[in-house]
């Protein structure tokens, strides 16, 4: 590293630091989105359990804007299960993204550590 000019070394350090900061920010956003989707999925699961716990043929209503429309029970259950599957897929996707970002952040940090441990002592 001592063979590189100071400007080049400084540019490399700045670039690695920027990568680390961007990865950390994106990782935090990804974790927040995952937690939000997980809350939505739990609420949806509770709603599905409540609907399945109702016995007999009852009227179910779905909010549409400022009004409510009657929806058949099977249709409502199917919509909720589809939403639950979509949320689960989104959560899995966000978790994969978070793992990638965490690896990218750790790589940037290890590069910075390597540069500073192998730099000449002044």
UniProtKB/TrEMBL annotation:
Pfam families: Prefoldin_2
Record has GTP-binding as a keyword: no
GO cellular component, one term: prefoldin complex
GO molecular function terms attached to this record: protein folding chaperone; unfolded protein binding
Domain of life: Eukaryota
Keyword list, A-Z: Chaperone, Coiled coil
Coiled-coil region(s): 77-111
InterPro entries reported for this sequence: PFD_beta-like (IPR002777), Prefoldin (IPR009053)
Family recorded in the similarity comment: Belongs to the prefoldin subunit beta family.
Protein name: Prefoldin
Organism: Suillus fuscotomentosus
């Amino acid at each position: 590293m001592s063979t590189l000019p100071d400007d080049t070394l400084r540019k490399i350090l700045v670039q690695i630091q920027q990568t680390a900061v961007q990865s950390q920010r994106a990782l935090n956003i990804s974790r927040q989105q995952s937690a939000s989707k997980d809350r939505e999925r739990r609420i949806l699961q509770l709603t599905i359990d409540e609907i399945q716990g109702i016995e007999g043929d009852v009227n179910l209503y779905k909010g549409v804007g400022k009004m409510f429309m009657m929806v058949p029970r099977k249709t409502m259950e199917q919509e909720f299960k589809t939403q639950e599957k979509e949320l689960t897929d989104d959560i899995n996707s966000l978790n994969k993204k978070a793992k990638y970002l965490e690896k990218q952040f750790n790589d940037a940090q290890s590069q910075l550590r390597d540069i500073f441990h192998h730099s000449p002592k002044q």
